[in-house]
Batch of 2 targets.
Target 1
Amino acid sequence: MGFQRFTTCFLLALCILSQSLTKGTFGFACNWGTRTTHPLPPEILVKLMKDNGINKVKLFEAEPTALKALGKSGIQVMVGIPNDMLDLLATSVNNAIAWVDQNVSSYISKIGVDIRYVAVGNEAFLKTYNGRFVQSTFPAIKNIQAALIKAGLGRQVKVTTPLNADVYQSDSGLPSGGNFRPDIQNQMISIIKFLSQNGGPLTFNIYPFLSLDADPNFPKEFAFFDGSASPVVDGSISYTNVFDANFDTLISSLEKNGFGSMDVIIGEVGWPTDGNSNANAKSAQRFNQGLVNRIVKKQGTPKRPTPPEIYMFALLDEDAKSIDPGPFERHWGIFNFDGSMKYPLNLGSGKSLVGARGVKYLTKQWCVISSNTNVLDPSFAESMSKACTYADCTSLAPGSSCSGLDTKGNASYAFNMYYQTLDQRKDACQFNGLSVVTNIDPSPSQGTCHFEIMIDIGKHESKSTSSAAPRIGIEYFMVMLVSSFIIILLSLFI
């Protein structure tokens, strides 16, 4: 009887431990972009990811400081190769071997980075590239695959290539009519076949926001997961949101070409918070909460009930990104550039989004327009132009968070962004006598416009690098708790 009681308690303890560890393995995936003038220290960013249950990350390039911070973090990594390297990698397998040795093998073996994928190129078949990378993408993929095999990583690290959703289309306008664009049909089939043979997934970026932004007649509610737009009926399937319809157009394209079971990853999906009238925190919260809910519920699409791996775009805002697609391009982050929260998200299991900790800032002072400045001063426009050429003024774009400022307010915002971007240098607030430094926050009391204070990179760089005592994780605590429990039980029955 005593042994039976012990067995029951032992199994119960194992169940408790198993449930705890299982919860610990569930998580989210996110993109980590590094196009920023004042980067959040990588160690803080990695901690931010772990605090929010993000256990997979995609890097757009093999950025050394990011990879070093990810060493032994428990976070799985997809390392990207920029498009401007495709020609080099396509022309010589030796170039690919050198790249893999420097950017994959060394980080895995020496630092303990858990690299799972190499993403060759980024949206290389995008229509706006006019075929620039069409001929080099597949040879680069083959050479990187050969390099991984040579390095003994062929099973551990898989090759993929992130593509934009514009590589497929539907002549009928319905998901069932999906097929790949005729101009890249042959290249797509060759890539898909090769990846399939080598166990690599296809990666696609889907942006409901861009669908809405590009078409003034697009039904706005159809962009959201909880929308009330009229469904799109395709045979026996009714689509209630553009994400499902877009993804299933891809699946139809794969089915038509004999690859219906091909593994697919969503490499980028998200919603920006600034840059035009559709890009705001309210819409971003609505969209991303719907996306998180689907991830937590493991919800797929009508044609693929099993959900794909989804990398949310993006982790942080990037104030140095190209704005060719639009001013919103610098505002895709779930978090602000400094890791502070933009809006709350319910992550499931009673967990909520939390911001970064330990961030050091520059002095609380701002550069603003002088009260006696005449906006008709000949140097006024020149000063504004200078500020916005070297700093991020996208929040002043029509429909953006600071678009409601008056002329002097616009100047103050621009001057301050320039001042902060140049680390509050004394000469950075000298706009032909039009500006002054103030310690009174000029951010409007109403609305969402915010005058930034940048991260103090110097303080973070000078911080001692000595290791603090490691924190004991909940998994370790539960193991010790159960072990102690078992020891106590054993002592009762021996």
Note: The longest helix spans residues 2-25.
Target 2
Amino acid sequence: MRKVVVTGLGLVTPLGIGVRRTWQRLIEGHCGIVGIKERGERFAVLPSQVAGVVPQGSKDDDAWDAKKLLRPGDERKMARFAQYAMVASEEALKDADWMPKHEEDLEATGVYIGSGIGSLDDVYETTVSYEKGGYKKVSPLFVPRLLINLAAGHVSMRFGFKGPNHAATTACTTGAHSIGDAARLIQFGDADVMIAGGAESCIHPLAIAGFARARSLATAWNDKPQESSRPFDRDRAGFVIGEGAGVVVLEELEHAKKRGAKIYAQVAGYGLSSDAYHMTAPREDGQGPLLAMKHALRHAGIKPNVVDYINAHATSTLLGDAAENRAIKDLLLGEEGKQRAEDINISSTKGAIGHLLGAAGSVEAIFTILGLHHNILPPTLNLHNPGNPGEDSDEDFNCNYVAHAAQQKRINVALSNSFGFGGTNASLCFSKM
């Protein structure tokens, strides 16, 4: 198989616009989760009134300014999730210094960007308009703005990329699937370069109402938004919805070396599995996540004892965090693993940004890549008492969860996990070159 490396990164997150701003604030322990009650009555009556929102403001302050960040006409043509994908893709391509003009290079470059939900705003607003005014109230751009694959489509059209043009929509595993699948397209020779990731923007009362009715969201911290996402903590009580985009430039190793590209990491392995269990709840024994991680290491040819860090999916839910914690310990402890649980380094960056749904896997993959590149373990915020709710002590939660503050650590191999409704699981393995 051809080897695949990461040569460019792009981010739009609740911590800011751009990789530099987001990473700096993440490792400094900042939180991008805010209260959303003031957005209007429809938000104020919801049981969960917190979200990881991309900050609005001046581009000079690394905040979202559509007029400055996008080209004229983009706001009209693109749904917000596609706008985020475009901005993240532009940053990643500039970072990779890959702006090809020759036909051969354009044909060898593809795009694989997905979304979990896409533009719920367009669905809702158009439905209301149609019910009130009928056919003529439906915009001719309704369907193009709605379609999830249009994020990848717009990026390919903007830069003239004629390679594979694809989009995954696998709930909260979308971003990880997009990167893993794109890497395989390079491995099998369908492209030399892929722009890959996920994007999401659904801070909408209907989405929040739906997740709240499914009892998935945090509702006990509305007056303290920055304390609401609490991965692995005993007081965790649901995830915090978020928005943003994460995009990477993946490249065949020899292609990258030939043009002198900067290399962040190698995509060493990619594992997939299914819980085959429940629509929204994980298996308590963590078998699905365990299988995904095992497959990722098998593809990488790496033993569990050399894994230095795992960026956990851990969304701050009661069952999900416990199941993943069990799966990680089952994987990394034992004959081919580590001898002590304290030597297992795990963190969940959702304490800082919330759960970005279809963008979560790609954004967190970028955090994993940056951690490996800079030898820094990103922190898990709001982690005061690891364990399960209602238990005074829990010996199962005895790993290093990088609570509160980032830690310096030599990282040679790292995993990034993503799991989604429907029981779909993916794990990406990154390594230093």
Note: The mean pLDDT is 97.
